[in-house]
Amino acid sequence: MFVDLRSDTVTRPSAAMRAAMANAEVGDDVYGDDPTVNALQAEAVRLSGKQAALFLPSGTQANLVALLSHCQRGEEYIVGQQAHNYKYEAGGAAVLGSIQPQPIEADADGTLPLAAVAAAIKPDDIHFARTRLLSLENTISGKVLPLAYLKQAWEFSRQRQLALHIDGARIFNAAVALNVPLQEIVQYCDTFTLCLSKGLGAPVGSLLCGSSEFIQRAIRWRKMTGGGLRQAGILAAAGLYALENNVERLREDHNNATWLEQQLRDIGLEIVEPGAQTNVLYLRQPAEQAAKLGPWMRERGVLLSSGPLTRLITHIDVSRQDLQQVVNLWREFLQQQR
């Protein structure tokens, strides 16, 4: 078994989660009568304080459905240059929805400067796409958006008559890092997504949450984009187990990432600031060294996305003992390079 630090998407369901899946009561979710899917969606409503929630197969589809539900053809959303739903989702909003992204540079802390957002909003003129939506990401590259900023962005969006969406793939990591309930974060958005198949440990699935009216539109778009599943309760059971059992334990992943950061600093590696705020850590290394490191580690049972900028992510399947092994191997590798 490899120690896999490439992502928290590589987690495997535990025995207890598999048992919950095997014993799940199911129905046809396209008809709305899968009791386990309904229970999962109800739990997301309870945790978030939103009116409604929708279970989707993936985070990419959840973000796409959100954008399609917020924006019409020829309209635009303002988003960060490094945001997942702009850069890493194959241009889905533009290709499938004819929705124009307007990317802007984020500040070092991951926030989108509101002055830059204001400058990007298009005037009401036939030459321009209509600006309808501000899309934030929390966490982004492991950085937690401050609550004060989210409140400012929310008030800004009300003043500018924009909807506000949060790509919250790792939003529970943000909640745990801030020591606040989920509802305290998502009160400052109209809609948000959360991923069940990253640090929460489920094998598949994401949730989209918002108003009842919004989710009704989203159900249609989910069907149109191929996300209407039938006996989906088998999958939803894993997500429900994750929400009930695996949220608070994210703190262990954060602590492991902080520990790993210090260990790697101590052996001379360059950590990208601000370091590990959650379960994500970046470091810089020479390109030639990075090219050797990945295969060398793999031969010894460790998987890394090794490059000049290397991302390491801790998760439920990586223990402190595993990380100590990684540090020992990294030290050995560096000694061989001298």
UniProtKB/TrEMBL annotation:
Residues 4-284 form the Aromatic amino acid beta-eliminating lyase/threonine aldolase domain. The keyword Lyase applies. It comes from the Bacteria. Its EC number is 4.1.2.5. GO terms for cellular component: cytosol. Homotetramer. PANTHER family: L-THREONINE ALDOLASE, L-THREONINE ALDOLASE-RELATED. This is Beta-eliminating lyase.
